[in-house]
TrEMBL record:
Protein name from the UniProt record: alanine transaminase
Cofactor(s) of this protein: pyridoxal 5'-phosphate
GO MF, one example: L-alanine:2-oxoglutarate aminotransferase activity
Pathway recorded for this protein: Amino-acid degradation; L-alanine degradation via transaminase pathway; pyruvate from L-alanine: step 1/1
Residues annotated as domain Aminotransferase class I/classII large: 128-527
């Protein structure tokens, strides 16, 4: 409206109404526009639409980023744990939700070590401290124990503005790094640990990838070679591909409970020297996916080999709390290195890793972790901090969760009895499930499972008949991928084929987590048994 007697609509009756409204002190109503104008739409004729399509076709051009133009190293990355079989499992879940009938009612995702997703309860004390850090007003609540409040206050004092929402130093909150160092000293029987050598990370994976970035260099035959166990956790092969480094395989001895043999390390190293510069040796202890726990003598042999061949050692020790078999014990590489004397402990470069995701905690989503790096060149320390600073800092809530892993309640504190009860319950339960899985698999014709000494997976060897291998080839699948896909489609059980972890030529395996509750695990194992027997009957 533009005042009395004037109306953009051109209508006299509207002008009179506007004048009356203004005189009464009211805002006049605007004229009602056509619906298409009100909704911001334009009604086009079919001829106009056809013309617009032609213009659009002329205007379109090739995409800048295509499979041909993308980074080839990223394209080469494979991560079997969340690969094609998991995507298929997701599709089946959607079909079940739509009411499409299947020979099962749910998909059991036994492909990944995600404890809480499988029903494991969180450790109360850890969640209490993180809750207090996240919402400090709870520090006044009588519902929380005093030992949890003390830890939360200490963590918050180390945060900018006493808030978990602030950035931390790139290396991590100082008081938490101090707690990690104290934990390592306790674990290793007094072997000294320097907080300056501790780097808090976004899970152990972040630390491993970061160290590899610094280590990889050279071109041609001088390109860095990274020695990894086969079977391996696919993080390693994925990181090596992304960095365009050279993967150097050494095979674990399946006939000897997946033991690591130094003679095999030497064979692998000598062969690799013909085409790359091997300078990194990765160890996973306890093993993933194989579950073996290395004995002291084996670790000493590996350290001597690394010292002799001038190799940088990476010790992935995220399952250090997960040891089940009698006679097995976790020994950290750091502890054994120091006990071997100054010639070794002052010279062998070692990075070791731990995480909140495994053990008895199972806090995968917090992405908490740390790495300890010893005997690093002083100038490289600065380069490492620089590289870490690019990603600013690891999640501060994950740092807080890591602090509770390394600084749990101690005897005499209010929360100790509940904490130790929950911790032992989780670990004892896992030990029972490890034995149950091993025993049940070994009763099935055509399946053999080594003892599950530690970690949280079974990696059984499966016999696949030649007819099934031929059919797999016809479907352009690895035989164990074909097997696992059939298992998923017929039973709803999602496991990962052994080819995603690496295995000796002519052998086939799958990896399955032992995390489901005991009753569900029994059902799962029975279903695998029934499926395998039918599979052998069909293809024999």
């Amino acid at each position: 409206c533009q005042g009395p007697g004037v109306c953009r609509s051109g209508r006299k009756d509207m002008a009179l109404r506007c004048a009356a409204s203004l005189a009464a002190g009211r805002q006049p109503r605007r004229p009602r526009l056509p619906r298409s104008a009100r909704e911001g739409t334009v009604r086009w004729s079919s001829a106009a639409k056809a013309s617009a399509v032609k213009i659009n076709e002329k205007a379109s051009r090739e995409k800048i980023l295509t499979l041909e133009s993308m980074n080839p190293q990223v394209k080469a990355v494979e991560y079997a744990v969340r690969g094609p079989i998991v995507l298929k499992a997701g599709e089946i879940e959607k079909e079940l939700r739509k009411g499409i009938k299947k020979p099962f009612t749910e998909v059991i995702k036994a492909n990944i070590g995600d404890a809480h997703a499988m029903g494991q309860r969180p450790i109360t004390f850890l969640r209490q401290v993180v809750a207090l850090c996240t919402y400090p007003n709870l520090l006044d609540s009588p519902s929380f124990p005093e030992d949890a409040k003390e830890r939360a206050r200490r963590i918050l004092q180390g945060c900018g503005g006493n808030s978990l929402g602030s950035y931390s130093a790139s290396q991590g909150i100082n008081c938490i790094r101090e707690d990690v160092a104290s934990y390592i000293e306790r674990r290793d029987g007094g072997v000294p640990a320097d907080p300056d050598n501790i780097y808090l990370t976004t899970g152990a994976s972040d630390g491993i990838a970061t160290i590899l970035k610094i280590l990889v260099s050279g071109g041609g035959k001088s390109r860095t070679g990274v020695m990894i166990p086969i079977p391996q956790y696919p993080l390693y092969s994925a990181a090596i591909s992304e960095l365009d480094a050279i993967q150097v395989n050494y095979y674990l001895d399946e006939e000897n409970c997946w033991a690591l043999d130094v003679n095999e390390l030497r064979r692998s190293l000598n062969e690799a020297k013909a085409y790359c510069n091997p300078k990194v040796l990765c160890i996973i202890n306890p093993g993933n996916p194989t579950g073996q726990v290395q004995n002291r003598k084996c670790i000493e042999d590996v350290i001597h080999f690394a010292w002799e061949e001038k190799l940088f050692l990476l010790a992935d020790e995220v399952y250090q709390d997960n040891v089940y078999s009698e006679g097995c014990q976790f020994h950290s590489f750091k502890k054994i290195l120091y006990e071997m004397g100054p010639e070794y402990c002052n010279n062998v470069e070692l990075a070791s890793f731990h995480s909140t995701s495994k053990g008895y905690m199972g806090e995968c989503g917090y992405r908490g972790g740390y790495m300890e790096v010893i005997n690093l060149h002083p100038e490289i320390k600065g380069q490492l901090v620089k590289l870490l600073s690019v990603r600013l800092c690891p999640p501060v809530s994950g740092q807080a969760a890591m602090d509770i892993v390394v600084n749990p309640p101690i005897p005499g504190e209010e929360s100790y009895s509940q904490f130790i009860k929950e911790k032992e319950s989780v670990l004892n339960n896992l030990a029972k499930k490890a034995k149950l899985t091993e025993d049940m698999f070994n009763k099935v014709p055509g399946i053999h499972c080594n003892p599950l000494q530690g970690a949280m997976y079974a990696f059984p060897r499966i016999f696949i008949p030649s007819k099934a291998i031929e059919e797999a080839k016809a479907h352009k699948m690895a035989p164990d991928m074909f097997y696992c896909m059939k298992l998923l489609e017929e039973t709803g059980i999602c496991v990962v084929p052994g080819s995603g972890f690496g295995q000796r030529e002519g052998t086939y395996h799958f990896r399955m987590t032992i995390l489901p509750p005991v009753e569900k695990l029994k059902i799962l194992l029975e279903k695998v048994k029934d499926f395998h027997i039918k599979f052998l009957e069909k293809y024999a």
